[in-house]
Amino acid sequence: MTKSFLVLSIGPVQSFIAQARRAGDLYAGSQLLSKLVDVVLGELAGIAGCTILYPARQKETQSLPNKLMALLPDEQPKATAEQLERVIKDKWRELAAVAKNELSRYVEPDSTWQKMWEAQISQLPEIYWTVTPWTEEDYASAYEQAGRDFDARKRLRDFGQVEEDGPKCTICGERSALHRQDEKNPRKYWSEVSQKVSQAKLRPNGRERLCAICAVKRFGEFSQEEHFPSVSYIAATSFKKALLEQMRQDDFDIDDSELRQKLEQHTQTLFLLKPDVIPVPKDVIPALASVSVSTTWVRLRDNLLSYDGEWLYLETYDRLLAKPGRLTKNEIQKAQEATRVLLEGVKSLENFTPRRPGPYYAILYADGDDMSNKMRAIAKKYNDPQKHTEISQALAEFAATGARKIVEEDHAGRVIYAGGDDMVALLPITDALPAANELRKAYSEKMGMLLDKPTISAGIALVHHLSPLGPALQEAREAENAAKRRFGKNAVAVILRKRSGEPMLVGTKWKLEKENGQETVVFLEKVRQAFLKKKLSMGIGHALLDEAYFLDGGKLPDEGKWVEVKRLFTRAAGDKQLSPEEKKQQAENFTNRLKELTQSIKNNQVSESKAAAENETDKHKSVGCSKSDDVVEPPLALAARWLILMRFLAQEGGGHE
Ligand SMILES: [Zn+2]
Questions:
Q1: Distance 178 CA to ligand 1 centre (A)
Q2: Is the pLDDT of residue 622 over 60?
Q3: Rounded distance, CA 418 to CA 350, Å?
Q4: What are 371-383's pLDDT values in tens digits?
Q5: How many domains does the chain fold into?
């Protein structure tokens, strides 16, 4: 019997995932898409003789890539594909209905609203599929043909945009915001909805006006706040963790009654603001919930974990005061004062870092290098679909257990999406690099039995918690691109965009100098620790950057260059913290590692224009720090920027000031 390859994708990813204002929307969109893929996998699993090549179904956590591939046994593969299309659309309608019912409970929809809803919901999802018969040829050739057929189909994208009237949705800006008849402005409808829900769910006075698709994310099945922490929660996590560490100690010599009282006061004032301070489930960041504190602190810990981190920033209250919703000015001011008192109290604690909640969080993108080439190579080598199934299984296991454990248990982050060879996660800024490094090690170990030299590249964006999420996601994606294209894959790149000023991009291989060399992140973490313990002056990065163009300009003998770098490190060594011997040793050590880092960057960096030429189809705009396309920054300057970045991390992005 002839078998056929089925390749099917569900999208557009842009509408489901990228168009997000909040971490919760992002998570919900990713979950919705996963659910649709899962329905297809379930359907395929029920067809006798069908082999799912990619992806493997996950048991507990649902995080599936939006494209799948299977071998269909039957003589009518097209009928099967059409049936799958119907199943996906039915499931989508079912998921959308959850949100529709929810919204209808708040405000009665009229026929205009209903029509808009129907029209917008029926635009999604975009489903593409191809079937390619596997006839005489060997598996490998047929597999490649199936890939080509699908790519050709996708190039003929169906553009079915519907013309719509009325102001656009404030989230996607693409579709019109839902409204009722005779309402020229959707503000009225959304203002009414906002009165029925908390400010955390929907901004008051119609400031957020959603289309049907964005409403499915915000009000549908995966929309409850308890599912996903806000980016402010993530940004404040290091601070909360430091407070928990304080509660771990049960030293009776220390009088902690003042801190207790301030924490108590803070939560009590906040909880008066209900329902706008929705109690967040205390395990929303699993790594925080698992910190054990002494019994006398348990209640205060639970309080601390059950409100969003945004209530630890004084600016939050300023924003509320500027545009008060339901809350009175007095209530807001009272809560702000309690926050100020708490923060002042914490500042006076000895050895407490970060001194205040840092305003930045990290978005991490990670992606397996050369995955499609590797899969084709596997097809050629074994000529057997079984190997592809095994790889998919291993990827699913890695995503569900390995990757998730690293991000959510070993570090204080949350996974938004983990599909196997790619993932997206949110983390506190100081966790991002170590977590990425552990991910790539775990991935290489897990997949090393099945693939030839499996590696991943990671991109990290360090983002202010009040910056818009959409562009920040784009930046993390660009960092990942830079790791792959500019820093030669098996690499990591970080983009730091402070609230004011130009973005800074740094990148390098995971290993210093050689494949068997020291891990780059281990060295960088040592630098961060040295900053933190005042063993290294904060100015070293900028001092080095100032001289880098001269030192690395090619006019100086190599030896002279490193003598000067060592002099800078010696000068930057902390006098109070280190003995003369230790100072010498530290300078020697850091100079040698920095030399390896510089060498590694030099050997692997590809100029922006060359990287772009290699990847013409990729039209992403570059945020590289080189002056023009053909000028590549001297490797030493890039190494100096890494030091500047580690200083930023040591200061928790301003959390120490
Ligand atoms: Zn929208």
A1: 9
A2: no
A3: 40
A4: 999 999 999 999 8
A5: 4
Q: Which domain holds residue 546?
A: 515-609+623-657
Say how many Å lie between the CA of residue 212 and the centre of ligand 1.
Answer: 7
Residue 405 belongs to some domain of the structure: yes
- Asked if 437 and 524 sit in the same domain, the reply is no
* CATH code of 70's domain: 3.30.70.2220
CA of 467 to the centre of ligand 1 (A): 19
Kindly give the distance from the C-alpha atom of residue 134 to the centroid of ligand 1, in angstroms, as a whole number: 41
**In the sheet where 456-464 sits, what is the strand order?**
414-418, 422-428, 360-368, 456-464, 491-496, 504-509
Select from 290, 313, 347 the last residue of a domain. Answer: 347
What does the alpha-carbon distance between residue 361 and residue 431 come to, in Å, rounded to a whole number?
10
CA 96 to ligand 1 centroid distance, Å: 14
- How far does the centroid of ligand 1 lie from the alpha carbon of residue 213, in Å? 6
Residues 459 and 521 in one domain: no
How many Å lie between the centroid of ligand 1 and the Cα of residue 214?
4
Query: What does the alpha-carbon distance between residue 407 and residue 90 come to, in Å, rounded to a whole number?
Result: 34
Q: Are 134 and 35 in a shared domain?
A: yes
β-partners of residue 493 are 459, 507
Q: Give the ipTM.
A: 1.00
- Separation of CA 117 and ligand 1 centre (Å): 12
Q: Say if residue 636 is in the same domain as residue 556.
A: yes
